[in-house]
């Protein structure tokens, strides 16, 4: 087996639920995905589809009332089988995470430099001076002007883009193999968005780190990801390379997401919106979860749950229409 | 800078308000102090003489300004019962009350805040709920009753401390401590319960924030996250409660000093009320009022200084 | 499901038991409250005297039962005074805003900053002691918290659409305030009333303990504690019993208030 191609992260049939007084709620209903080394993998879906929950489960940061089955294999170890202490050992060092809202994900009362430094303090044995220079180095590397001065600033004193860079710095400072970025550009201006995406691309290129990029915006996903998983209502409904996803979308939901992207040509026209709403986590159906909103659905879709079908090498779709042209 | 000026102005306004209310309460309402001093059977001439001496016949405006002038020079009047300046009486008893207040405050902070954090850490689980219930009971127990029980258990049954009396610090520090620790505990108990509750709520609120998740994603364990990140953030709202705690301690000391027969300002106040020694009552009300106002003012200032978001101004 | 309502249950149960005792005491107590019996002084709790006797040989349980009347009465009237005036002041302040609001809130804040017992003591020192003045003093002491809560409710609601609609229809301000807004703001006021009751019980007990509250022959748990303190070495139960009942009543209303608040938050 070629070590280069062995996946860094392999999730098999992951199911995540929450115990509530009203009964268990199933957020993720059996997904499998794979991240190779140096790959940037995208997970796209609207809010409520379970993508954030999946990310948190990789980090073992789900709340106490959650339960998970299946396996999350990271470099040969099943993360779900680890004890809390063992799982904690992977955080920050092997796997790290970037959150959506940098204003709320940074401690408002701590200087930003120190928040990066804290990571080093925990995972390395460098002394104070060494850590300080390393932090400045990282800050420069991710494009923060005047790192020395910025070190002592508080989060609210920085712009959104700079804050997100700090969050990225925190995520990469200990050289983790895998970075999970949960909607890292959603809260930013378009121009800043582009900068952050370029930064992430640079990090992936120069240090061979894998990135899981989570977003609801297919346009952003297309910019940066090589492989994409489309999630809906706790299921993976399509997997493809970014190219193939756009040129040959297999699932009606994916098609809807593509249509919903604002394009220059459609300026002045109404934006397309997929009719209906994302099902709530408590909704249980027997058939295809997307059926109520699908323009192509038929009788079978209501009754049966479709399996993932291969329509090309490296392209799978969970739809009874898979293979036909949409 | 502007913020501080506004707060100073507000404090001055409050002070003036307090002065006004006190003046009205003690100078206007009770009627003629000379009458109550001499009694109903006094001779008309004695009554007139005393009235003139006390300046009671002067118009209101003059009485008010004379009264205010007296305040600024530290003259709070003369106690009717002891015939000694009020300010002297107060200063005499200040050390006791201040010692009590400081000890109570230390207990509240050192016990209340850690227990509140522990209670928040365990949330709805057993230790958390237990602490909450215990603090509920703590808030319901009348402080003077806990004082009595404490005297009974530690003073009479166990004989760890002597059941009454006060030993001045200057004489014997250890003895002074022993005579003050029980009353300090009695005063502190309801406030400890309050602080546990506030701290618990504040910490639990903070734990819902994203920065807690980020800290954990770095690989920190829960205790480190609580201490290094959450604590500072959680303490800020608690500081605003400090003013209320001070008021509770002062109020508590009034009653507790009576329970333990300590020669403090609180007990002096009660005696003054019982003997209707109005100048004395008035003097002490003013003294307590000023302390409260000043402490609240400082708490306000501290609050703005500690939070860098307020100190440095929000960017967006 | 009941887990969420547990506060409410505990509070209701505690208050009901004590209220039952109070109602019973209106008609019957095991022994006459004022009967002095030199031969039975300082008896420990027994089958005959469930809580023992005091220094005069009087049955402690009977005195406690009688004392509950005072506790409930003072609490009820004081909270009524505090809530009626407090809500009025808070409503006016919150609804009309402006300089009136500023002044009123300054005064309310100043009052809240004080140790509450001090306010009551000030009143009593000027107007004298006794049942009526105790109730008024505690009533005045309760006004600020009602005023604040009511005010914030009114400030919130006066910007809402239904109020604007009512104004457009030409409904008078008074009617809007008390027929339209007030019912919506009632819930936190009820919570405050429950807590206020608890505070009133504590305040009355403290004042009576100091000798500046309820005077003999009116019974009071607080005063029983001050009487019993001298004899604690001889009959500790006399000093313990009133305290326990004060605590239970206060706990009851605190739990009740929390319970009501819990229900409101879960909606």
UniProtKB/TrEMBL annotation, chain C:
Keyword Transmembrane helix: yes
One of the record's GO cellular component terms: plasma membrane
PROSITE patterns assigned to the protein according to its UniProt record, in alphabetical order: ABC_TM1
Pfam families listed in its UniProt record: BPD_transp_1
Subcellular location: Cell membrane
SUPFAM superfamilies reported for this sequence: MetI-like
Main location class: membrane
Statement: the UniProt record of this protein carries the keyword NAD: no
Keyword terms: Cell membrane, Membrane, Transmembrane, Transmembrane helix, Transport
Membrane topology qualifier: Multi-pass membrane protein
Domain ABC transmembrane type-1, chain residue ranges per copy: 68-257
Annotated GO biological process: transmembrane transport
Transmembrane segments: 6-28, 71-97, 117-141, 185-210, 230-257
Database matches in InterPro entries: BP-dependent_transpt_permease, MetI-like, MetI-like_sf
Similarity comment: Belongs to the binding-protein-dependent transport system permease family.
Protein name from the UniProt record: ABC-type dipeptide/oligopeptide/nickel transport system, permease component
């Amino acid at each position: 087996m070629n070590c280069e191609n062995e996946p860094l992260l392999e999730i098999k049939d992951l199911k995540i639920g929450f115990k509530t007084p009203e009964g268990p709620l199933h957020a993720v209903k059996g997904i499998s995905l794979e991240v190779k080394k140096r790959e940037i993998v995208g997970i796209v879906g609207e809010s409520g589809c379970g993508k954030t929950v999946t990310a948190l489960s990789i980090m073992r940061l789900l709340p106490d009332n959650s339960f998970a089955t299946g396996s999350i294999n990271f470099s040969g170890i099943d993360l779900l089988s680890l004890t809390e202490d063992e799982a904690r050992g992977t955080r920050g060092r092997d796997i790290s995470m970037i959150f959506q809202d940098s204003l709320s994900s940074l401690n408002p009362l701590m200087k930003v430099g120190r928040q990066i430094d804290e990571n080093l303090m925990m995972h390395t044995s460098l002394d104070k001076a060494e850590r300080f220079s390393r932090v400045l180095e990282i800050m420069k590397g991710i494009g923060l002007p005047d790192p020395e001065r910025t070190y002592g600033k508080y989060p609210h004193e920085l712009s959104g883009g700079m804050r997100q860079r700090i969050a990225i710095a925190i995520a990469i400072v200990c050289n983790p193999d895998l970075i999970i970025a949960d909607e890292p550009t959603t809260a930013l201006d378009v121009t800043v968005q582009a900068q952050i995406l370029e930064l992430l691309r640079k990090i992936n290129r120069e240090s061979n780190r894998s990135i899981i990029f989570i977003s609801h915006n297919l346009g952003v996903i297309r910019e940066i990801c090589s492989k994409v998983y489309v999630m809906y209502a706790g299921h993976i409904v399509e997997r493809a390379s970014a190219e193939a996803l756009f040129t040959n979308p297999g699932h009606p939901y994916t098609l809807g997401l593509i249509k919903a992207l604002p394009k220059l040509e459609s300026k002045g026209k109404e934006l397309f919106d997929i009719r209906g709403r994302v099902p709530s986590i408590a909704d249980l159906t027997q058939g295809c979860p997307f059926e109520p909103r699908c323009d192509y659905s038929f009788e079978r879709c209501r009754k049966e749950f479709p399996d993932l079908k291969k329509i090309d090498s490296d392209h799978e779709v969970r739809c009874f229409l898979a293979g036909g042209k949409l | 800078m502007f913020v501080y000026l506004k707060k100073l102005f507000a404090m001055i306004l409050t002070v003036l308000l307090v002065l006004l209310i006190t003046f009205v309460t003690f100078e206007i309402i009770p009627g003629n102090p000379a009458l109550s001093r001499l009694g109903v059977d006094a001779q008309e001439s004695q009554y007139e003489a005393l009235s003139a001496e006390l300046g009671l016949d002067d118009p209101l405006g003059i009485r008010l300004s004379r009264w205010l002038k007296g305040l600024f020079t530290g003259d709070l009047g003369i106690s009717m019962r002891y015939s000694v300046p009020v300010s002297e009486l107060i200063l005499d008893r200040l050390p006791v009350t201040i010692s009590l207040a400081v000890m109570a405050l230390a207990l509240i902070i050192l016990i209340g805040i850690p227990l509140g954090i522990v209670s928040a850490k365990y949330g709805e689980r057993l230790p958390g709920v237990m602490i909450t219930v215990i603090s509920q009971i703590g808030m319901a127990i009348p402080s003077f009753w806990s004082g009595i029980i404490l005297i009974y258990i530690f003073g009479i049954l166990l004989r760890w401390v002597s059941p009454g009396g006060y030993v001045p610090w200057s004489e014997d520090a250890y003895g002074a401590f022993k005579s003050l620790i029980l009353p300090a505990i009695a005063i502190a108990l309801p406030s400890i319960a309050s602080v546990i509750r506030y701290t618990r709520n504040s910490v639990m609120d903070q734990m819902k924030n994203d920065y807690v998740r980020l800290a954990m994603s770095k690989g920190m364990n829960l205790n480190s996250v609580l201490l290094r990140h959450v604590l500072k953030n959680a303490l800020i709202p608690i500081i605003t409660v400090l003013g209320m705690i001070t008021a509770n301690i002062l109020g508590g000391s009034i009653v507790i000093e009576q329970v333990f027969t300590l020669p403090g300002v609180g007990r002096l106040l009660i005696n003054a009320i019982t003997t209707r020694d109005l100048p004395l009552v008035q003097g002490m009300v003013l003294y307590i009022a000023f302390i409260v106002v000043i402490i609240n003012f400082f708490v306000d200032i501290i609050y703005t200084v500690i939070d860098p978001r307020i100190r440095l101004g929000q960017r967006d | 499901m009941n887990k969420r309502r547990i506060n409410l249950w505990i509070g209701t149960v505690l208050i009901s038991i004590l209220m039952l005792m109070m109602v019973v005491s209106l008609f019957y107590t095991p022994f006459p409250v004022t009967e002095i019996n030199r031969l039975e002084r300082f008896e420990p709790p027994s089958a005959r005297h469930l809580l023992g006797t005091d220094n005069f040989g009087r049955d402690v349980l009977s005195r406690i039962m009688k004392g509950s009347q005072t506790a409930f009465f003072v609490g009820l009237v004081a909270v009524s005074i505090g809530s009626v005036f407090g809500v009025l002041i808070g409503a006016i302040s919150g609804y009309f805003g402006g300089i009136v609001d500023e002044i009123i809130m300054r005064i309310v804040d100043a009052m809240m900053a004080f140790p509450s017992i001090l306010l009551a003591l000030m009143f009593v020192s000027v107007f004298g002691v006794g049942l009526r003045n105790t109730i008024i003093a505690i009533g005045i002491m309760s006004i600020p918290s009602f005023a604040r809560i009511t005010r914030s409710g009114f400030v919130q609601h006066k910007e809402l659409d239904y109020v604007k609609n009512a104004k457009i229809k030409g409904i008078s301000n008074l009617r809007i305030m008390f027929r339209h807004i007030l019912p919506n703001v009632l819930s936190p006021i009820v919570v405050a009333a429950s807590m206020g009751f608890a505070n009133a019980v504590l305040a009355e007990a403290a004042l009576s303990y100091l000798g500046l509250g309820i005077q003999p022959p009116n019974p009071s748990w607080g005063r029983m504690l001050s009487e019993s303190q001298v004899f604690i070495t001889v009959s500790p139960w006399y000093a313990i019993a009133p305290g326990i009942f004060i605590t239970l009543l206060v706990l009851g209303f605190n739990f009740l208030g929390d319970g009501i608040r819990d229900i409101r938050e879960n909606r």
